[in-house]
Amino acid sequence: MKLFKLLAAMLLAVLVAAPAMAADIELAKKSTLNEIVARGELRVGFDAGYMPFEMTDKNGNYVGFDIDLGKELAKAMGVKFVPVNTDFDGMIPALLSDKFDIIISGMTVTQERNLRINFADSYIVVGQSVIVSKKLEGKVKTWEDLNKPEYTVVSRLGTTGEEATKRMLPKAKYKSFEKEADGALEVINGKADAWVYDMPFNVVFMAEQGAGKAIHLDKPFTYEPLGFGIKKGDPDFLNFLDNFLRQIKNDGRYDRIYNKWMKSTEWRAQVQ
């Protein structure tokens, strides 16, 4: 009798699990990953206007940090990289209407966007970093050290840099500028103590004009992660992307691309 009950329970478990297994198989068949491999192309959506992530060079080719990541992803899939330049405001609707397979366009992961699409693990955090006057070397070691009345901190008007400065450095004097270069040069020229802005801009500025004249506190103090965006309901594609990012961050490929676009300014000659 006990053996009969055990066999009956096992049969019931199989019958219950079968529909779920069938559903999982159907879900896997519908994955965008399969479509990409069958098509032989990875269509990547981006907006060519965010240095150094995606730009157009002098020959009309798309270049940048995100472009190289997209090409590396296509290579890992064994397919052709197909760039699809799209206005950023229409990026998510274009993805949802199958204009391309994935968004790789310097898109910040926000809860609002995450309600509409899924994001792979963040591939870079581009929060606010700080360029500090050379005269404060050794005295100002973190952004928190600037939260004093004797310091003047500058940023660009209407940006997250301005918001972060006012919110997190309320004791410091604040001054805004309409252009990034003007504000950053205020520090180089000794008229301000620190400049707060997006980390990628600060990296490029330091390489071009700040070397030996200022200090870059290059660890972002706000959390603004960028992620690859895909349509919801595709766990197989998401799994592939997360493992791809994990792999390239540990085998040197990511560092090579990062150093090319974030720690060098040689690329500027391509786009100017």
**What portion of residues belong to β-strands?**
15-25%
User: How would you sum up the global shape?
Assistant: elongated
**Are there runs of 5+ residues with pLDDT below 50, and where?**
none
Strand-and-helix sequence, N→C? Answer: HHEEEHEHEHEEEEHEHEHEEEHHH
Largest sheet: 5 strands, mixed
Mean pLDDT: 90
| N-to-C span | 83 Å
What fraction, in percent, of the residue positions are helical? 40-55%
- Radius of gyration, in Å, reads 24 Å
Structural class: alpha/beta
Counting DSSP E segments of at least 2 residues, the number of strands comes to 14
Count of separate DSSP helical elements: 11
- Order of strands side by side in the largest beta sheet? 10-9-11-8-12
Please describe what this structure looks like.
By secondary structure, the chain is an alpha/beta fold. It contains eleven helices and 14 strands. α7 (180-188) packs across α8 (199-210). The longest helix is centred in the N-terminal third of the chain and has 28 residues, at 2-29. The mean pLDDT is 90.
